[in-house]
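**User:**
Make up any protein.

**Assistant:**
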Amino acid sequence: MEGDWQTRHAFFRNNLKLRSEIEDLEHKSRRRDILVDDEKLFAFYDRRIGSEVVSARHFDSWWKQASKDNPDLLSFDKQMLIKDGAEKVSQLDYPNFWYQGNLKLKLSYQFEPGADADCVTVHIPLPLLNQVDEAGFKWQIPGVRRELIIALIKSLPKPVRRNFVPAPNYAEAFLGRVTALEQPLLDALKREFRRMSGVTIERDAWQWDQVPDHLKMTFRVVDEHNRKLQEGKDLHPLKQVLKGKVQETLSNVADDGLEQRGLHLWSFGDLPQSYEQKRGNYQVKAWPALVDEKDSVAIRLFDSEHEQQKMMWRGQRRLLLLNIPSPIKYLHEKLPNKAKLGLYFNPYGKVLELIDDCIACGVDKLMADAGGPAWHQENFEQLRDKVRAELNDTVVTIASQVEQILCQRVQHQQVAAERPGVSRFCHRQRLSAAGRHTALSARY
C-alpha cells in the first residue's frame, strides 16, 4: 500500500501515478478527505490476487498467467480512489497553468497555513514580468473562488453585510451567473449583488485586507533557473522593485544596433512601436523610444507602453531642438521690452531656465498639433519642418503669456502683504490660479 514494492509491472506504476494525482488534488484543494483509505486498496488487491501468492516470486509467476486472461485485473480506476461525497472536487478546478493573453504561467500549490505562499502561487519568469497584468488574478482559480467570495461578503461593514446572508448562498448564486475574468471581480460583484438585492455596494466597502491571505494569489518572480527573485501578494510593488532587472533583461535580448546612443539626427530608419524577441520558451516584449540625453538622444527599450510614450515625447522634443535653429534670438527681437523685463526679473528662477521651458512648451504644442511623436523617418522630417517654420512665433506667444501670469502673481502677493486682514485662503486661491503655469511643464 505504501508503494515500496520494487517491481517493473506496468499496472503498479500506473496505480501509483493515479494515487499521486489524487494526493496532489488533496494538496491543491487543502483537503485530506478525497483519497480512499489503505484498507479499501488492500481489499481491492486481496479480492483479485490468489491465496497461493505469498512472495514477490510467487506473484510474478501468478501474474504471468493472470495478466494474459485479464490485463486490467489489478489496475485502479480513478473514481475508485475518490471517497463518496468528494466527487465534485476536480482537477479542472485546480489548473496547472494560468493563461493571460498569449502568456502561459505555471501555478503551484502549497498547503501550509501561515506560510507566505500558502495556497496558490503563479510563477512569472523575469523576462515576462512587464507583460503580466494584475487584472484577473483577483478572481483566483475556480477551486478557491467560492471561498473567496464568501470571505469578501464577510469583509463588508455590518449594515451592508446583513443584506447578503447567508453568504454561501449569495456566493453560489453569483458564481452561477457570471463568467470569470470578463470584468474586474469587484465590478462584477457590485453589478450582480445589486441585481439580486437592490443594494449598491461601493468599491471601498470591500475590505480586501480582511480576506485571509491563502485566498489571495501569490506572485513569484523567478529567474532563468526558476530561482525565486521576489514574492508577494501584490504585483505592482514587485514590478517596481524589479524594474531595473527587467530593463537589463530587455536590453540583453535586443538585436544588435537596436539600442543606440549619441544620436543627433534621425539616422536609424523607422522606429518600431513595439519589439518582440523569442528567448528560450518566452516571447519577450518591449517598447522602444527615443530618450533625451541633453546634447543627444538615445534609443532604448522600455518595459511598458506608458513608459515608452513618456520617454518618446521627451526624446523627440530633444531631437527636434537639435535639428532646428534656436528661437532665442528671434524671441529677443520680437518680445516687447515690458515682457522681457517681466521674464528677466521674475522671482521664481533663472531666466534662461524659464526661456528653455517656453521653448520646450512651444515644441510640445506643435508636436501635439501634429498628432504626437513621429515613428517613421519621413513623418519626423515633416514634423521637423513644421516646428522649424512655426516655433519662433509660438515661443513669443507663450513667453508673453508667461510674463502676464508672472505680473498677476506679483500683484496678488503685493495685495496680500498690504491687506493682512483679507482671508489667507482667498489669497492662496488667487496665487494658485495666477501661478499655475509659472513653472512651465510640458505634456510629459
Notes: The two ends are 68 Å apart (CA to CA).
